[in-house]
Amino acid sequence: MFTGIVEELGEVVAVENLGDSSRFVLRGPVVTQDAKHGDSIAVNGVCLTVVDTADGEFTADVMAETLNRSSLGALAAGSRVNLERPMALGGRLGGHLVQGHVDGTGTIVERTPGEHWEVVKIALPAALSRYVVDKGSITVDGVSLTVVDAGDDYFTISLIPTTLDLTTLGIKKAGDPVNLEVDVLAKYVERLLGRGSADLQDLEEIKEMER
To answer: How many helices and strands, by DSSP H and E, does the chain display?
Structure first.
């Protein structure tokens, strides 16, 4: 479990294409300080398992499912990435509950600079738009953000100088893809409400059969 508070702006050292998967070597001196084999590190919001660590770098295998659902497949040596270690029990929850399980990708539509911040408009798949609400939480490339405006096929976010300086969102441009993870609580609520409706329908059918 993560919080969406990026710890480090890392870099892709190498990408090895293995056919139905890829092996990434990434540089992140901060997140590898206490990392060991089997630990998790979020890369642009995608939870990856550490295979090996050495000299401030770590290796992770990325399966086809992850490559298909996220923008990690577009990364190459030299690409900058947002890195975060899992939250520690008993620590402060600075952002919101983030699983590192990407729901899909969006596309940056436009960036509007302000005096002390920047407003970014991002297009997203229609299947995800129902989980995005004004002033709700969303994770963009692993960064926990508050939605300013939610439309049918887009949403906007405001980025403060700290976010612009310390994450890849400061260097992304219009047309670039971003990984999106919606609030998992919204998905659970939707599923439970749907199951509740089904249960009521089943109950009515049972009553009708008993008459």
So the answer is: 4, 12
